[in-house]
Structure formats: C-alpha cells, structure tokens
Write a structure and sequence with these properties.
Number of strands: 18
CATH topology: Jelly Rolls
CATH architecture: Sandwich
Number of helices: 1
Strand content: 35-45%
Number of domains: 1
Distance between the termini: 28 Å
Order of helices and strands: EEEEEEEEEEEEEEEEEHE
C-alpha cells in the first residue's frame, strides 16, 4: 500500500517535539454510531475475507489465517515456504459495506516483526482502480513505537470507468512516534473523514491531520483490517526470523456515519 516515508523520526521524542500536531479529540456532533463489532464470532454479513495480493506484498491473503472468537479477531501472518512467489500467508478482512465520510475506530494490539505491516485502512476498492482514495493507519513491525498515517489520492486526469489499467496514487505519509510499544498491549486507533479533513488519533489524541487534497477524497471506501509482509525492506524492514508467525489482534471496531453537511 504505502511507501517508505522520507525521513524517520526519533522514537524517543514526544509527538509534539517531532513536529506532530497533538490534540485531544473534542466532543463532536458530526458522527453517530452506525454499527459495532465485538468479534464474538465472524459476521459474514459485515465482513468478507479476500484472497488477492499485489507485487510489493509477499503474502497471499488467505481465508484460513483469521480466528474470530471470544471477543478477539486475530489476523495471522504465517510462513508458506513452498510458495516461491508468495512465501507468506496473511489476511485482508474487508467490510461488505462502504462508507462515504465518517469515523472508524478500533481497539487493537498490532503485530511486531521485521517486514510486517498490520493496519486499519479505508480504501476505494474497485479494481482496476479508476480513481484512488485511501486512508491508512499502518504499524510497521520493524519499529516498536511508531505509526504511519497516510492518505493516498489520484491527482491525474479523470478516467472513465470501468478502467482497464489502475491509476497511480500520490501519497502523503507521516511516521509518528507513539511513546509506547503498539504490539505490547491494546490501544484505540481512529480515523475521522469529513469533507474538510482527515484526522488520525490514538487513545483519544489527534496525532495527524491531513487536508492537502481533501476535495479528491470523495469516493465510498471499504474498511480493511490487514496483516501482510512487505517487499520494501527500506520501509517495513528486511524479512527475517521475526517476520512470521505473528498476529494482530482486534478487540472491537466501531463505525460512525457522518451527520454533517456533505458537498
């Protein structure tokens, strides 16, 4: 999905010292709860398990690498040494319904391991992509205490769907220090998407806001919970013995509809 950020940050520095805007998430009337999943069982009316991959993903997504029971959705990254092209098996758990503006919040314990990416994503999913809209909270397992927030949009000329070749997005990544190990315990991660901005928060604090090309972020997007292995060693870290087996665990997820004024 995303690429290597341009400059790493000091993991020991607090977010404000590293130039990351930090603020408490204020009470708002812009969102109302649409649904919640406590992951007691796998809800096939809400979620679908994908089986695709892409060039920079060393994992083939599998329907057998997720366990949803006892209030936890555990997404596993495992080795598949007999598969030379895709030597790992991962998970993309994708919402059936799409969201146009709103808020997605999840309590999760993410996966540490070099080359491992575990995430909460909003993505416009038609493929080949006739446009690109994406918001990411991605934990790069090579770092214990950093999180990448990213927005991706297509800046080129309009296309006419259905596309025969996918467009290429422009990315706006921000690698932010957290002040804790995101793989050691559960924390609450949230993305808010309105016509004015996208906000990324952790445990109720806004760590990143993006509005550079917000008018282009207008397509309905599906919610993705993912774990995969990246071929980009300079971004996610080299593949080594820590890459697999690992798991990302999601305790609950809430989806809020936007009740403000849409363009």
């Amino acid at each position: 999905m995303a690429q290597d950020p341009s400059a790493p940050l000091d993991p020991a520095a607090p977010a404000h010292a590293a130039g990351i805007a930090v603020s408490e998430v204020p009470a708002t009337l812009e969102f109302e709860l649409a649904w919640r999943d406590d992951f007691d069982t796998f809800d096939g009316a809400r979620w679908q398990l994908m089986t695709h991959s892409w060039d920079a993903n060393l994992a083939q997504f599998s329907t057998t690498n997720v366990r949803v029971e006892n209030g936890i959705a555990a997404l596993q990254l495992t080795s598949a040494p007999s598969d030379g092209a895709k030597p790992f098996r991962g998970v993309e758990m994708r919402s059936v319904e799409a969201l146009t503006y709103g808020k997605v919040e999840a309590r999760a314990k993410l996966a540490q391991g070099s080359g491992v990416v575990s995430s909460l994503v909003l993505l416009y999913t038609p493929w080949p992509a006739d446009d690109w809209n994406e918001l990411d909270i991605e934990y790069l397992g090579r770092y214990a205490d950093r999180m990448q927030f990213n927005a991706m949009v297509y800046l080129g000329p309009p296309t006419t769907p259905p596309a025969t070749q996918s467009v290429t997005p422009t990315q706006y990544p921000e690698l932010a220090p957290l002040g804790f190990d995101a793989s050691a315990d559960f924390h609450v991660y949230a993305m808010e998407w309105t016509p004015a901005q996208a906000r990324f928060s952790v445990d109720g604090q806004v760590l990143h806001t993006w509005n550079t090309e917000i008018s282009r972020l207008r397509r309905p997007m599906n919610i993705l919970l993912t774990i995969w292995a990246s071929a980009a060693a300079d971004w996610a870290g080299p593949i080594d013995a820590s890459t697999a087996p690992v798991a990302a665990e999601y305790d609950w997820l809430e989806v809020y509809r936007y009740t403000g004024t849409a363009p």
